[in-house]
Amino acid sequence: MTDTRSTCPYCGVGCGVLIESEGDRITGVRGDPEHPANAGRLCSKGQTLHLTAAPHVARQTRLLHPQVRAARGAAPQRTTWDEALDLAARRFNGAIATHGPDAVGFYISGQLLTEDYYAFNKLAKGLIGTNNIDTNSRLCMSSAVAGYKLTLGADAPPACYEDLDHAGCVFIAGSNTAYAHPVLFRRLEDARRARPGMKLIVADPRRTDTAEAADLHLPLQPGSDTLLFHGLLHLMLREGWTDTAYIAAHTRGFEALEALVRDCTPARVAQACGLEVHDLVTAARWFATGASGDPKARGATLSLYCQGLNQSSSGTAKNAGLINLHLATGQIGRPGAGPFSLTGQPNAMGGREVGGLANLLSAHRDLADPAHRAEVAALWGIPSVPEKPGLSAVELFEAAADGTVKALWIACTNPAQSMPDQRTVRRALQRAEFVVLQEAFATTATAGFADLLLPATTWGEKDGTVTNSERRISRVRAAVPPPGEARHDWRIVVDFARRLRPGHALFPHETPEALWREHRESTRGRDLDITGLSYAKLDRDGPQQWPLREGDTQGKARLYGDGVFPTPDGRARFAALPHRPLAEPREPRYPFSLTTGRLRDQWHGMGRTGTLGRLFGHVAEPAVQLNAGDMQRLALRDGELVHVTSRRGSLVLPAQASGQVAPAQAFIAMHWGPEYLGGRGSGGEPLAGVNALTTSARCPGSQQPELKHAAVKVLKADLPWTLLALAWLPEERALATQAALRALMAEFPFASCVPFGRERTGLLFRAAAHEPAPPALLDRLETLLGLDTPEALRYADRRLGQRRSARLRRTDGHGARLDAVLLAGDTRAEAWLRPLLQDDRPADAYGRRLLMPGGQAPVAEAPRGRQVCTCLNVSDSAIRACLARMSDTLGNDEERLAQLQTQLRCGTQCGSCVPELRRLVRGRDTAPA
């Protein structure tokens, strides 16, 4: 067995991993104890990485050869790399020759390596001469970029993870850190145990697991963040909690901000934000004083923030408003203090470093600055870099939908799932004359729209670097060779560039390190100067933070400790940006505020995590969560279907009552795209997952869309005919079957398809309709799920529109087990048949009663319960039973938690479930039913 040191491909924490491999197979993964970001820890997603790289997964999900479509809608056919790249060069050159270089565009990804990102940036802006290149980081981090540049002068998070160990107060805004950055949240838990006086404030409309852990939860109304920050500053000024000496010595523009917040009185802010005045006062005091209670004591406050601030039509104002608080109180540039933006993707920071956004150039240069354009042109040896602003992500797809952009190149991202306003995105993908998808996985929604598919390498196969949230550059290394004909992303770009402009000298690179060295030179003298860094130093000394200038031995953990900022006069700028309302506030026609967010065990569009049934154990199926009072008012029971409709589209989903959601609000996880949740609309159009609902309204400063919020209405769905199918399948065809089932989802007004299982792989297919499905459609379902065999048990009543079938598996000495079941027209038996199948319980006693209508079990079968601990497969029912057996002498919550972990071992492996365990221990289970 070989160990290869690399980096996790999921969130921006940037955890180090040790990849275990044998030959060309990845066989295991564990946390790297020497990596400073995680010190050996991994979350539930990271711990299962090796399972997503298993050969049977790759055979069913990976794009292994170049493929081309002869016509839209046709099945793609295998081609050679030479033919594929020649075709791409002809089509792009044709569009450029006829319509100019701005007729093409590139949409890339924060999951690319820095070397890949640099190559794409140089291809578009240097070789082709268009700034039409943007990244899915526009959807998650561009407001943070704009906020940092507006106030501090550069896109550079000034804090580091170690600051958690020094903070007296941690202020989390717009982030469910427990789910989105679990390993960092473990570090926060450690810091709180070591320093019990630390205070945690969480500002979030939902009572998430992060909010549940807080000393003070501020359940503000969606979109009111800027007003909250202005109100806190008003209180700090009133109480004398600002640092006037710091303001005078190191900042500019405070007078304008002071005038702006004068009217943000506690009463006004409390009413608008839906908060209590005394909570505002407490938050202001803790923030300003680092929870010491005394501004002169110099307590430290660290703020952590993410998509709740960024994904907003006023994202720049929200980011700047929070940074204003740090500048006004001197909470920056010292241990434990600073505004710390958490990146969502593994290399969103690296993409920002190389100018991967349409308005940036290499090394944090601004495209609008003629001097910056000249510097990059000189570095690349070209006459000039185009000055016309490039199209941001939403603008790029709007231009393609309008017919302005003729050719699109998409790499390592899935816009047919992740972009807002999916109707426009799909029109863009259909209208563009030529769409290239450079991707590792053939199963994403976007793959169905591509004219040319180019197989790329992915985690465990790539070599290069990434940068995490704390500006730490880590090496990514290949443990196994690429499967099939997959090529590295940077290599595809270089090969395409050489065909596009034969003989041009812009792409001489033969290794990722050659690209990285050129990127390194571009940083010389810049705020992110890494001229003292090399692959050799990273290999020898491990991950390093920037800046690390030539001659330095190590990078800087914190920035601005000297009070000098990268602005013309060295002073930070207060940003007096007013509070703006949501792009579409609630109103009588759309009375609910829909927010979106993450699930604990899933990642983005689930192209990778969605291949593992065990990662669906915690949240098994898509749903919309509502407040229990709203459920009662709408006369809804848990699991009943509802229409969730915005101004752009509609979805049908099961409704769930949740204690985490406030009245007049709704929540849907961002991951549920058309790969897992679908159906057809009233006009016959296919439904496109959660982003069919979201708006493309965007922040004028950052061009980041308001993915976090949409105004919706929720109405009970009248779909009386229901269907449920569950089946264990051979692992070598389960994921291929899932892909085939997706094609059937559009046959129903509502359908979902998700995997389940740990040691085995199963699929769950659920649907509903106004009338019974045609028998031929049910036949197709039975065939895909292996229910078409002669030994399968069957019952059908065409008059009632019902069908039931079941397949049993005989086991040596252990009786029969239910292996597959389909219930059509009457699904009430799910309550006992589903645990019978999923928990692999004996089925000998049932016989043909497996086909009985109705929900009453012939033999009592208690459901196992919802999985809480993914690593060790511990359910909530087992946890509650264990807590009930505990002695009353264990009154302390920490003692009860310790005893629970001793007995069931839940939360002792990756720790991602620990926040939920604490909630259960306290008897405050706010999770959906």
UniProtKB/TrEMBL annotation:
<dbReference type="Pfam" id="PF00384">
    <property type="entry name" value="Molybdopterin"/>
</dbReference>
<dbReference type="Pfam" id="PF04324">
    <property type="entry name" value="Fer2_BFD"/>
</dbReference>
<dbReference type="InterPro" id="IPR041854">
    <property type="entry name" value="BFD-like_2Fe2S-bd_dom_sf"/>
</dbReference>
<keyword id="KW-0500">Molybdenum</keyword>
<dbReference type="InterPro" id="IPR006963">
    <property type="entry name" value="Mopterin_OxRdtase_4Fe-4S_dom"/>
</dbReference>
<dbReference type="InterPro" id="IPR006657">
    <property type="entry name" value="MoPterin_dinucl-bd_dom"/>
</dbReference>
<protein>
    <submittedName>
        <fullName>Nitrate reductase</fullName>
    </submittedName>
</protein>
<dbReference type="GO" id="GO:0016020">
    <property type="term" value="C:membrane"/>
</dbReference>
<keyword id="KW-0004">4Fe-4S</keyword>
<dbReference type="InterPro" id="IPR009010">
    <property type="entry name" value="Asp_de-COase-like_dom_sf"/>
</dbReference>
<dbReference type="GO" id="GO:0042128">
    <property type="term" value="P:nitrate assimilation"/>
</dbReference>
<dbReference type="InterPro" id="IPR007419">
    <property type="entry name" value="BFD-like_2Fe2S-bd_dom"/>
</dbReference>
<dbReference type="GO" id="GO:1990204">
    <property type="term" value="C:oxidoreductase complex"/>
</dbReference>
<keyword id="KW-0479">Metal-binding</keyword>
<dbReference type="InterPro" id="IPR050123">
    <property type="entry name" value="Prok_molybdopt-oxidoreductase"/>
</dbReference>
<dbReference type="InterPro" id="IPR006656">
    <property type="entry name" value="Mopterin_OxRdtase"/>
</dbReference>
<dbReference type="GO" id="GO:0051539">
    <property type="term" value="F:4 iron, 4 sulfur cluster binding"/>
</dbReference>
<dbReference type="GO" id="GO:0016491">
    <property type="term" value="F:oxidoreductase activity"/>
</dbReference>
<keyword id="KW-0411">Iron-sulfur</keyword>
<dbReference type="InterPro" id="IPR041957">
    <property type="entry name" value="CT_Nitrate-R-NapA-like"/>
</dbReference>
<comment type="similarity">
    <text>Belongs to the prokaryotic molybdopterin-containing oxidoreductase family. NasA/NapA/NarB subfamily.</text>
</comment>
<feature type="domain" description="4Fe-4S Mo/W bis-MGD-type">
    <location>
        <begin position="1"/>
        <end position="57"/>
    </location>
</feature>
<keyword id="KW-0534">Nitrate assimilation</keyword>
<dbReference type="GO" id="GO:0046872">
    <property type="term" value="F:metal ion binding"/>
</dbReference>
<dbReference type="Pfam" id="PF04879">
    <property type="entry name" value="Molybdop_Fe4S4"/>
</dbReference>
<keyword id="KW-0408">Iron</keyword>
<dbReference type="GO" id="GO:0045333">
    <property type="term" value="P:cellular respiration"/>
</dbReference>
<keyword id="KW-0560">Oxidoreductase</keyword>
<dbReference type="GO" id="GO:0043546">
    <property type="term" value="F:molybdopterin cofactor binding"/>
</dbReference>
<dbReference type="Pfam" id="PF01568">
    <property type="entry name" value="Molydop_binding"/>
</dbReference>
<dbReference type="InterPro" id="IPR027467">
    <property type="entry name" value="MopterinOxRdtase_cofactor_BS"/>
</dbReference>
<dbReference type="InterPro" id="IPR006655">
    <property type="entry name" value="Mopterin_OxRdtase_prok_CS"/>
</dbReference>
